[in-house]
Amino acid sequence: MKKMILLMAVTLFTFAAYAQEKAGPVIEFQEKSIDFGDITQGDKVEHTFVFKNTGDTPLLIQNVAVTCGCTAPNWPKEPIAPGTTGELKVVFNSAGKMGKQNSVVRVYSNASEPIEKVSLISNVLPKGQK
Predict the structure, then answer these.
(1) Which end of the chain is more exposed for a tag (fewer CB within 10 A), N or C?
(2) Where is the signal peptide, in residue numbers (predicted)?
(3) CATH of the domain at 54
């Protein structure tokens, strides 16, 4: 009888721990970075990062922060329902930039991991060199 109670308690505890892990919104990006390779100084490149809310409550992106004014994000302001996808569009303007660039974008949300990062990578070449 004691073994049966112990087994039930362990099972219940395991289930409760698993349920707690999945509680709330969870943001999962299809990809975390995109490498544009060589681009010419002054070029604007853009990429749309697709993400999914794999949690069990609505996901709300509260803010998106960039490392410099050369990067402009656009994100959904409405909640993302569980099981649905959203898009984060990011534009990088290489004007005034030179060499290897790694534009990091921080995504602040109500997800279980409240800060996620995605990045745009490029190598900016002088005009006429590409």
Answers:
(1) N
(2) 1-19
(3) 2.60.40.10
119 forms bridges with which residues in the sheet? 33, 104
Rounded to whole angstroms, the Cα distance separating 45 from 93 reads 7
How many angstroms separate the CA atoms of 104 and 97, rounded? 15
20 is in which domain, residue-wise?
2-125
User: How many alpha carbons lie under 13 Å from residue 6 in its C-beta half-sphere?
Assistant: 3
| Residue with more model confidence, 21 or 107 | 107
How many domains is the chain built from?
A: 1
Each residue's pLDDT tens digit, 79-110: 999 999 999 999 999 999 999 999 999 999 99
Other Cβ atoms within 10 Å of 119 Cβ, number? 20
DSSP state of 128: T
